[in-house]
Amino acid sequence: MAVIEYLFTNETEIKINEEIIKKSGGWKYASLLLVNQGLATLAFFGVSVNLVLFLTRVLDQDNSDAANNVSKWTGTVYLCSLMGAFLSDSYWGRYLTCAVFQLILVLVLGLLSFASWLFLINPADCGDGTKMCRHSSSVGVCTFYLSIYLIAFGYGGHQPTIATFGADQFDDSNPKAADSKAAFFCYFYFALNVGSLFSNTILVYYEDSGKWTLGFLVSLCCAIIALLLYLLGTSRYKYITCGNPLTRVAQVFVAAFRKWNVAPATADALYEVEGPESAIKGSRKIPHSDDFKFLDKAATITQYDLCGRKDPWRLCTVTQVEEVKCALKMLPILALYHNLLCHLHANGIPFCGARRCNDLKTGRFPLSSSQHVSFRHLQRSHLHRNLSSNSRLTELQRMGIGLVMGMMAMIAGGVTEIQRLKLVRPGEKKSRLSIFWQVPQYVLVGASEVFMYVGQLEFFNGQAPDGIKSFGSSLCMASISLGNYVNSLLVSMVMGTTARDDSPGWIPADLNQGHMDRFFFLIAALTALDFIIYVFCAKWY
């Protein structure tokens, strides 16, 4: 009787667990994550979108210095995504990683709001383009930089994990799961655009008029609401455990290096576990390929491997080796795009609006220096909906089109700058050129982002092995950080080369004395070179 009672109890527990699994995840809880993404993006961009203006108006930095500082900061944001992916896959899991990094974001937004009110915005409403702020104390400046870099840490660590955690909410055993995941990524990108659109319209309006602390407080409230909504689904999220891809990648390289003098075995003689499942938890087996044959040494069985126990740092499976090969083939494609886009984010938006064109007003509502970027967000949302329903273009083709559109955007920016300089009155800082001249370049950049960002997201999730899909999201963001650091280096090199003797350089404090148009055309030329390399890599892939 005791045995029967024990079996009955276990069977009941199994049925209960299966019922809980069936009720967990799905669109209901994935939608919570989409709203969370939109609010977190609104909070982040409420700080980042006007950061160059804050540095120039409140902290009194030069244009080139402010652009360099923002490029480095933005690069740090996306570089932190690697930290988030590592902690997610290795130790904490995706749910806890998202919760911890969002909590960090909330706390430091509070610190930034407090620091700006107490130390930086003095007198009140200064930094609006007309009222100058007093010199900030070293304590205030240090607190400000500590705050924004912790914001980079919080938002950067949260971003790649929340995307993968949202895709986890759909059961792979369901035939419709693949379509649901594809739709989720589409809505994920849409949520990002909605959050960014609101920050570029509502929040920027207050910040541009000198109400910086109010803008930061609104970002703080959005982050708090995002965190509470995220915690609301705790008991019903679907949780998936996965291994650490960084460790597996390191094992392949270490094992191949240890067998440097060993000739790689033939495909049928390489090591692989028995059965349909791979040794990597949650990953299917991957057949052998002939690329990067030197890595096959890691799966080559030697006499030492036969005699002793199987050491993963000396002998790896074919699936593990192919996982690394796949990542190596994708890296050039992921790293090629973001320099031109990061240039526009760091330099184009604040320079174009605040210093290049006149303050256009519609009725009593002024179009601020960053709000005109909303054209880009509206274009992205519209184009993304059309692109999502059209699958005739491959992911690689979409990314190529995105590069071409990005190059065209830089050319449009250069032409606009030439026209702006022609309409500058002597003795005045602002040009008579309408700010709507900038709409074409932002429409082109918006289209470029849709083709590139969505193409990359679908490409990596479709082509990457099961075991590195979450790490792939962080690689996409890490490539953005690379673009920002390259952009920062490029600005420094351009100013170091052009600002000599009596020449103010291409990007001086007074842009009317410089040649931003030449800088735009330089970016366009580099993008053309980038496109040629991309075509070669895409054909090789």
CATH topology of the largest domain: Growth Hormone, Chain: A
CATH superfamily of the largest domain: MFS general substrate transporter like domains
Q: How many beta-strand segments?
A: 2
| CATH-derived architecture of the largest domain | Up-down Bundle
**Structure annotation, total helices:** 17
In terms of per-residue confidence, which ranges show pLDDT below 50 for 5 or more consecutive residues? 1-21, 343-365
Helix content: 55-70%
The shape, in one word, is: globular
Class of secondary structure makeup: mainly alpha
* Straight-line distance between termini: 64 Å
Instruction: Output the radius of gyration.
Output: 26 Å
Q: What is the averaged pLDDT score?
A: 77
Our estimate of the beta-strand percent is: under 5%
Q: Numbering strands along the chain, what is their spatial order in the largest sheet?
A: 1-2
Order of helices and strands: HHHHHHHHHHHHEEHHHHH
Indicate the CATH class of the largest domain. Answer: Mainly Alpha
Major beta sheet, specifics? 2 strands, antiparallel
Oligomeric state of the chains in view: single chain
Number of domains: 3
